[in-house]
Amino acid sequence: MAKVLVASKVIIWDECTMAHKRALEALDRTLKDLRNDSRCFGDAMILLSGDFRQTLPVIPKSTVADEINACLKSSNLWRYVKKLQLVTNMRVALVNDTSAEEFSKQLLLIGNGRVAVEESSGLIAFPSNFCNFVSSKDELINEVFPNIIANHKNKKWLSERAILAAKNKDVNDLNFVI
Ligand SMILES: *[C@@H]1O[C@H](CO)[C@@H](O)[C@H](O)[C@H]1NC(C)=O
Ligand SMILES: *[C@@H]1O[C@H](CO)[C@@H](O)[C@H](O)[C@H]1NC(C)=O
């Protein structure tokens, strides 16, 4: 692996927003050492890709401040990062799907913090045309996996559907019920 790191011209680090800043700093020191070059990352090019609207480093039992402190933007290496933006939604551009276009705009409004927050709860309300709403977990399961008894061995049917959740606990609970 050391030989590969010495020979590399570019190292691509995807979903970098979830990485701990210490991991990037360790890579910096390792490359300086292996490449015998005191310049940043031993003069290898590092391409970080990710979207800071998404998940930051997960630190068990931490506060928001701990997560922000662990984030790459809090690293002393961040000042050397040159920022480039990708602004074309390729799913919309390639498939020409107008509902996907509307959805991607709504997602950006939420991600950019432009949707009004209710004062009492601190929560946002989704626009009414954002998605299909259900009122219970059971209804969600029946919408996404209707008649699972007949379909559970059909790999194509299974590959076309999924329920995502933010926490492993909710995933396990849903899997157990399904
Ligand atoms: C590392 O670089 C220094 C300065 O360029 C040089 O003097 C030294 O011989 C190099 N060491 C190795 C192991 O290549
Ligand atoms: C997408 O749809 C628009 C309007 O229907 C059309 O003018 C355009 O050529 C389409 N683009 C692609 C890549 O299919």
Can you put this structure into words, describing what you see?
The chain has helices at 2-7, 21-34, 64-70, 90-95, 98-111, 137-144, 148-151, 155-159, 168-177; strands at residues 10-13, 45-48. With 178 residues, the chain is mainly alpha-helical. It folds into three domains: 2-80, no CATH class; 86-130, no CATH class; 132-178, no CATH class. The mean pLDDT is 93.
Topology of helices and strands:
Layout: H1 2-7, E1 10-13, H2 21-34, E2 45-48, H3 64-70, H4 90-95, H5 98-111, H6 137-144, H7 148-151, H8 155-159, H9 168-177
Parallel strand pairs: 1-2
The structure holds 2-acetamido-2-deoxy-beta-D-glucopyranose (2 copies).
Give a quick precis of the structure:
With 178 residues, the chain is mostly helical. The chain is built from nine helices and two strands; from the N terminus they run H-E-H-E-H-H-H-H-H-H-H.
Class based on secondary structure composition and strand pairing: mainly alpha
Mean pLDDT: 93
Strand content: under 5%
The number of domains is 3
Over the alpha carbons, how many angstroms does the gyration radius reach? Answer: 21 Å
How does the overall form come out from the CA principal axes? extended
Number of helices: 9
Bound molecules: 2-acetamido-2-deoxy-beta-D-glucopyranose
Largest sheet: 2 strands, parallel
Order of helices and strands: HEHEHHHHHHH
Descriptors:
mainly alpha; binds 2-acetamido-2-deoxy-beta-D-glucopyranose; 42% helix; two-stranded parallel sheet; 2 strands; 178 residues; extended
